[in-house]
Amino acid sequence: MSEDNDNLLFGGWVVAIGTVISALANTPSFSITPSAKNDLKIIGNSLQATGNAIQVERLTSVQLENIANEIQAIGNTTVISSLILPFDKQIKNTLNTKGNLLQALGGGISFSEDWNKERTINVLYSGIGNLLQVIGNSMQALSTQSKKSEMEWNTIGNWIQATGALMTAIAVTI
Asked: What pTM does this model have?
């Protein structure tokens, strides 16, 4: 296995672990203190950003897959800033929304790249996984717009994203 494949494999699982941690932190029935939930959100998004950065094969490369991972890492970093910087609630919500939309954009680029490849089991897992991440991130971004069902949309979106991240990690593994 080449170093690039090692980076894709390791980075994919780091992203998957981060999305599961973030999904747990955003699940209302997961009984921990609000401070611990916030810490887990920061850890989860940090792992996602790190995993996406690891997956970038070469910083000088112009491949769309690398650009997609860079955009997703920027999206996660934007979400992290909404969690740790001392902004008012409106600015935090805006940063969170934009961060999730950037993640969705990166996932959409990855999905479009998968769509153009020969259909193998790996490509199908990756494509479906990327599509699920786009859907999940979009639901999270929309959750701030719906005060009535914000928590439900956010929780469901987190778990859809986590499922997609696990699928893409499996795609690189098999």
From this structure: 0.92
